[in-house]
Amino acid sequence: MVLKNGTYKIVTFGCQMNLADSGVLAAILNAHGYRAVETEQDAEVIILNTCSVRQKAEDRVFGRLGELLAIKRRNGVKIAVVGCMAQRMGDEILERAPYVDFVLGTDRLYELPGYLANGEPIPSIHTDFGYEHIDGIVPERDSPYSAFVTISRGCDNFCTYCIVPYVRGRERSYPVDRIVGQVRDFVADGVLEVTLLGQNVNSYRDGDSDFADLLKAVASQTDIRRIRFMTSHPKDLSDKLIEVLATEPKMMTHFHLPLQSGSDRILQKMGRGYTFAHYHDRVRTLREVVPDISITTDLIVGFPSETEEEFRMTLDAVREIRYDSSFMFRYSVREGTAAARLIDDVPEPEKIRRLTELITLQKTVSYEKNQEEVGLVREVLVDGVSRRDPSVVKGKTEGNKTLLFKAGPEYIGTIQKVNVITADSWTLHGEPVK
Ligand code: SF4
């Protein structure tokens, strides 16, 4: 190793997929003798694991790179930009920040220890797809009790607004055995809950095994207590998968099902491959078969040519489906996507107005949905202490809602039955069942 102490700091931007990748990279660095430190000032190498999903996310990374220049001048720290922005922009990163030492794309970030060992004096750009030699690595993670398990990489859907298929490549599923093995490793390391991750878990395939088969294998062949997954595409949501949710007790009752728009014309322009009627039908079936399911979604307002009436269809969809919560965004152009060729004709103030109205509506619906939880008993995986009150612990319910209750730190890392006493739009409050 060329570095003196081998200290590193990973800063992760973006989604759970990036968090999972950062966990694997940290484990690989540790296996090579490197050591994570808390602050960038103490690190000999700073790694920015980046997100390209919105312009804002990329701007934040360039802002951070500007700040890192001062540290670089002071102590010569090595800087690596890895992940989606590295994949998408490559050379442009080095033009705008020539002091960056390494640029490694979404499938190449795991090669960083090799480049550090070589001490290459010039910036390296590596963005080929297909590097996956990470078997036998137990990823580092933020929580001792829950972990992300990547089951597939890339996406074949090419929704017209989305950069993911370009920066993460075509869809590749990991074998069932390997995923089961990774979950077993996590269980041996104290993990109680796993979240299986893919851009579109519903199109997972390993030989004859589909995603429902994978869930059954993870549930039956490991001692994991709770299983979640993310993200699902509505066009691929099968009855077989819904059946597993209904029959497998380890499955948590939460389904994240991105709708994006309530208008069929906009859905078609987005290339989503379903109509609102199809989507609504899937939700009805989900709720019939798994009545307790909590449903969350992603919504975009201000897609090119979206009219006020079409925006109102999205509001109507939120009222009709009654999501437990939503991730809501205003459309932002991503160069290189099909939608970038459309005229971005909804003015920014109008996008902001629509988004504000949508958020206000969702807040009301979330409040109503959470009131329905009051009086119920929920099972919570307690994962920490409340930031505001050290005498209160927090955790997630089966439906992925945050639940707070008064208890000591000895509850952390246990699964507790809790009576829900009160609720607001974002949080449930309760007391443990005696
Ligand atoms: S399904 Fe669509 S939105 Fe999701 S990652 Fe693939 S292309 Fe992007």
Give structural attributes.
434 residues; alpha/beta; Rossmann fold; Transcription Regulator spoIIAA; 4 domains; 23% strand; binds iron/sulfur cluster
Please explain how this structure is put together.
α7 packs parallel to α8 (211-221) and α12 (308-321) packs parallel to α13. A six-stranded parallel β-sheet has the order 2-1-3-4-5-6, with helices on both faces. 35% of the residues lie in helices and 23% in strands. It folds into four domains: 7-126, Methylthiotransferase, N-terminal domain (Rossmann fold, 3-Layer(aba) Sandwich); 141-252, Transcription Regulator spoIIAA (2-Layer Sandwich); 254-372, Transcription Regulator spoIIAA (2-Layer Sandwich), CATH 3.30.750; 377-432, Beta Barrel (OB fold (Dihydrolipoamide Acetyltransferase, E2P)). It is globular and about 60 Å long. The chain has helices spanning 16-31, 55-75, 84-89, 91-96, 112-118, 164-168, 176-188, 211-221, 239-247, 264-270, 276-289, 308-321, 348-371, and strands at 7-12, 35-36, 45-50, 78-83, 102-104, 124-126, 146-150, 152-153, 172-173, 193-197, 205-206, 209-210, 226-230, 254-256, 294-301, 325-330, 377-385, 392-396, 402-406, 415-423, 427-432. By secondary structure, it is of the alpha/beta class. The structure holds iron/sulfur cluster. The site of iron/sulfur cluster has 10 residues, from α6.
